[in-house]
Structure formats: structure tokens, C-alpha cells
Amino acid sequence: MSKQISANEVKEHSTVEKGLYIIIDNNVYEMGGFVDEHPGGAKILKRVGGKDASKQFWKYHNESVMKKYQDRLKIGSLKEEAKL
Asked: What is the pTM of this model?
């Protein structure tokens, strides 16, 4: 089973030094080790660190990119939290 990660935990990992987590389609990816490899440059990944980057990801990538990197970078899924 995939690790459940809260939105707050993702926010806490908003820099490369803290692990650089991003959310794409309710899945959480750790991008800290990928920043220097990213073909679009490190700047864009740093800009979306700690946030939901689904819209930005799908604007520039297709399903084949997701399949290529998902196993390596995915660390869990976003935990559903009760809204009070």
C-alpha cells in the first residue's frame, strides 16, 4: 500500500534541502534528487515545491513522461483529510 502523506507534510517539503515534494493528481513525488536532471530546468520545480503541480505538469508533459519517472519519484499519495 502506498504511503499516505498529508498536504501539510507536502508544504513542509517545499525546498530542495527539505526534499522538494510536489503533488500531481493526488500522488506525491519527491523531486529533490531530480532537480538537476529536469529537462525544463530546476527553476520550475523549485517554483512548485510543496504544492499541487498537476496543472503545470500536464500542460508540458504527457502520459509517457509520467510512466517513465513515476516508479522512481513517487513516494505516496495525498491523504484525504476531513474538512470541518
From this structure: 0.92
